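Researcher: Next entry in the queue.
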Amino acid sequence: MLPVRGRDGRATGFVRHILGSRTAWTPQGDGEFFCPGCGGDRNYQRLAGRERLTLFGVPVLARGTTEPVVECASCLHRFGVDTLDHPTTRRLSVLLREAVHAVAAAVLAAGGTGSRAALDTAAVTLRAAGCEEDAAERLALTLDGGDPRAPLTALAPHLAAAGREALLLDAALIALADGPYTPAEHATLTTIGESLLLPAEVVERVLTAARMPS
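Model: Structure for this entry, 214 residues:
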């Protein structure tokens, strides 16, 4: 019995049931990730694949390796390993708290450490980000004017533009709590905006908007 061929010359019909391919997956590790399918943090297993040619469903010949994947333990969907570059919800919360803490410290160090209004505004911002109730007070006592760029650079790729602008606005409101921007505060806010990957014109727009009554 000869195989039936289609218009493109390829074998059709029963031939496709004779010859095929199958991928055998081998676990390489596991962990927790943000699953795009589930929309939340889930456990995953990293898998390496080897593809084999099959004859009547039986593997007979190796055809090489495939790109590794990660498989969600809940929905069982598989994704490229670049999915692991996205932080989990827990990790994103930590990154946000660290960034807000660094922003508040930098702005206060630039000119607001002795201002009750600036400390109160910083306290509201820190609590909104999930920091401890007395975070602003402890921040004022241990302030060293550290560089905010590292935590902001870690967070920025995972925030939408609106979120990055909101963080810069919070920083601007801390600076404005005790009066107009000082040159040092403006320079610090500009650095914060740059670290948040915001264009210069957007930074100035946000800093101008912060001065307007709500």
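Model: The CA atoms of residues 46 and 70 lie 4 Å apart.
Researcher: Noted, moving on.
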